[in-house]
Amino acid sequence: MDDSIWAERVFAASRNSTCGHLFHSHPVDCYVARFGDRSPLTFLAQTGVEIIRQDLRAMLEPHFSKRFRTGRVMDSNGGLLSEWTSFRDETPALVRGGSKSQAWLCPTCKKWIYYPMGKWYILAKDIPSDPVFGTDMGGVIVTNAIWQSIIGTKLSKVACKRIPVNDQPKDGFPPEISETPIDLQRKSPGLLERG
């Protein structure tokens, strides 16, 4: 199966056909005809599906398997690519931003949409007890202790960025995005057509 055909199917099956927003849960098994830079942690464009190489996943166990829903990664002929696992955190942490961040309730799918603008951070109240977890912006967040065990290895192309933890939001929205009053909701004009 061609990458673009599979991606179109996932896009259609996992997004609201009117507004285009992702449903909370969508397929995890995926097809990959070719890889780009072979990073041990990456995502498949237009699908919201992330994939992790087994050597990095092993360093995150047993926490990874407890936190993420996983699936198979297959080549275009349906053959299993055992070096990879697809994954999805069903309750990802919300990455927040600064005063230009956007948040609104989509009138079509009734999902809260949030785009962090400026410097990213996570609110302390949104950090789960798990030492490994996902975010709504993709990627995997790990505790400093787990990161220290990874940085001494020979894994290449693992991008790392510290994400600050704040007690209060800096974006002008309430700590719970879903409690944002109508008069505080904001989004850029370019996003109006899509909900």
Describe the secondary-structure layout.
Elements: H1 3-14, E1 30-31, E2 41-44, E3 49-53, H2 54-60, H3 63-67, E4 69-74, E5 80-88, E6 95-96, E7 102-105, E8 112-115, E9 121-123, E10 132-134, E11 140-142, H4 144-151, E12 165-166
Parallel strand pairs: 1-4, 9-12
Antiparallel strand pairs: 2-3, 3-5, 4-5, 6-9, 7-8, 10-11
Structure explained in plain terms:
The chain is α+β, with helices and mostly antiparallel strands. Strand 4 and strand 5 form a beta hairpin. It contains 4 helices and 12 strands, in the order αβββααββββββββαβ. Strands 1-4-5-3-2 form a 5-stranded mixed β-sheet. The longest helix is centred in the N-terminal third of the chain and has 12 residues, at 3-14. The model has no long low-confidence stretch (mean pLDDT 82). The radius of gyration is 18 Å and the shape is globular.
Which key features would you list for this structure?
single chain; alpha+beta; 3-stranded mixed β-sheet; 12 strands; 195 residues; 5-stranded mixed β-sheet; 4 helices
Helix content: 10-25%
Q: Which value, in Å, is the CA radius of gyration?
A: 18 Å
Q: What structural category characterises the helix and strand content?
A: alpha+beta
Strand percentage: 15-25%
Global morphology: globular
Give the helices and strands as they follow along the chain. Answer: HEEEHHEEEEEEEEHE
* Number of helices, counting only DSSP H or I runs of 4 residues or more: 4
Mean pLDDT: 82
**Low-confidence region ranges:** none
Order of strands across the main sheet: 1-4-5-3-2
Instruction: Give the terminus-to-terminus CA distance.
Output: 32 Å
How many DSSP E strands?
Answer: 12
Largest β-sheet summary: 5 strands, mixed
